[in-house]
Amino acid sequence: MKRKTALLLFLLFCMFSLTGCKRYDPIMDLTEEGQGRENGDGTMGRSSEASGEGLTEGEALEAGQIKNRPESAGEDGIIRISSKPGRNRVKVKGIYLSANTAGSSARMDEIIRYIDATELNTVVIDVKDDFGNVTFKMDSPVVNEIDAVKAYIGDMEALAKKLKEHNIYMIARIPAFRDPYLAEKKPEWCLKRSDGSIYKDNKGQAWVDPYKREVWEYLVEIGKKAGEVGFDEIQFDYVRFCTERGMDDVVFDDADTNGMDKPQIITEFIQYAYEELTGEGLFVSADVFGTIISSPTDAQTVGQVYGEMAANLDFICPMIYPSHYGNGNFGVDYPDTKPYETILGALEGSRRELKKFEAEGKKLATVRPWLQDFTASYLEHHIVYGDAEVRAQIQAVYDAGYDEWILWSAANRYHYGALLTPEEAKAQSAAMEESRAPLEQQP
Per-residue pLDDT averaged across 168-175, rounded? Predict the structure, then answer.
C-alpha cells in the first residue's frame, strides 16, 4: 500500500511539473512567401505538447538583499515602484521556468545548483501564464477586481531573495494579448466577430484586443508589480495579433484603431510599455516570431515589424528554433537536423534586417534569441536534441556576433551538459572579445 501511495504521489508531481507554459504561436493561412512551418497538429510556432516536452541590480539590491518595495501610488492613481531597481545590464544566459517549477522549493534548489555550476545566470519565470493566471499574489487594482491570481508561487519575495543571493538575473514573462481569463472577465476588451460573438482560436481560447488601451494598462500594472518583488526585466510574449482562421471576421472599433494598422498599434503598445516600465527602473524585452525577420507578409500578419520593435525595446528575443523553419530555409534541407546552420542563418538575417534601421540612426535593442532544448519528434525529419545540439546553437549565436541567449523547454528539462563552467565561460568571453576587436575597429 505504501509503495502504491508513493507511486501515486510521484505521478501527481510529474503531472503538475509538466503543466507549465503551453506556448503555441500559431500562424495560419500564410502565403507562399511565409517561411513558417506548421507543427504536427496544424499549429505553428512554439509548441510544448507537439514537441514532446511535457505535452523571456542596482543599489536597491546590493549584497543580494531585496529591500521592501511597497506600492507607491500618486494622486493620479498610477502604480509606482517605491525602491527602483538599477538598470544594470547583464549578458543573459538563461532558461525558462514555468510557475509550477518556480513554486517548488525542491525543483528551484536543484536548478540553482545547476546555475551556480554553469555559465547560466538568468531565469525567465511566468508572472502571468498562457491562460491569463497571475502566478503569485499581488495587490493591484484590475488583478484584484477580476481575481486573476492563481498562486503557483506561494512566496515570490522569498524566491526572489534566494535568486538574488545567487546573483541570478530575473526576467518576468508576461503573455500579452493571448489571455482567455481576462477575455472572460472583461469581454468588452476581447476580440469579437461581426455578429458580436467572442472570437476563439482553434484551442477554444479567447484573445484580448491589442487596440484596447485598458489592456495595455493591465499588462503594465502586472509588470510594475513584478518589479516590486524583485524582477529586473519584463518580457512580453504573445505581443501580437491572433493569426488563426476566422480572424478575417473579427471587427475592431474605429474609435480604438484610430486609423492604425496591426504593426503600428503593436509598436505603439511597445512604446507605451517601455516608457512606463523603464521609468520604474526595469528593462523591457519582447518575444517575436523568427520568421518576421525576413518575411514582410508574416510581419504584417502578426503585427510585428522586427526593426520597429527593436527600436523601442532594451532586448528583442526572436524565437528561432530550428524545428519551426520550413524545409529549405537558409539552404538547409531539413532545418531541425542542422541546429548550428539554422541558428546562424537566422541571426545573419537578423543582422541584415537591423542594418536597415541602423542606417536611419535608430538605437536598437540587443538581440537575445530563444534556442531549442527539446526534440521535435512530431516532425518527419528531426533529430534528438541533446548536449551537442544545444551547444551547437549557442556557438552559432556567438559566431553570428551576438552574446546572449535563452533556452526553451516547456517541461523545464535542460541539457546542462551543454553548458560551460563559469571559469570556462569567462575564458571564452575574453577570447571572443579579442577576436572581435579588429572587426569592430573597421570602418
Answer: 98
Residue type, 342: T
pLDDT band at 367 (very low <50, low <70, confident <90, very high): very high
Burial profile 384-415: b = 16 or more Cβ within 10 angstroms, e = fewer:
ebeeebbbbbbebbbebebbbbbbbbbbbebb
C-alpha cell at 255: 474609435
Whether residue 340 contacts residue 395, with contact meaning beta carbons closer than 8 Å, is answered with: yes
User: What pTM was computed for the model?
Assistant: 0.84
Cβ contact 217:189 at 8 Å: no
The pLDDT confidence band at residue 359, using thresholds 50, 70 and 90, is confident
The Cα 94–Cα 403 span in angstroms is: 12
Instruction: Please write the tens of the pLDDT for every residue from 13-28.
Output: 444 333 333 343 434 4
H, E, C per residue of 18-41: CCCCCCCCCECCCCCCCCECECCC
The pairing of strands 71-73 and 79-81 is: antiparallel
Residues ≥6 apart with Cβ < 8 Å to 186: 146, 208, 214
Which has more pLDDT, 118 or 39?
118
Q: Tell me the three cell numbers of residue 368.
A: 537575445
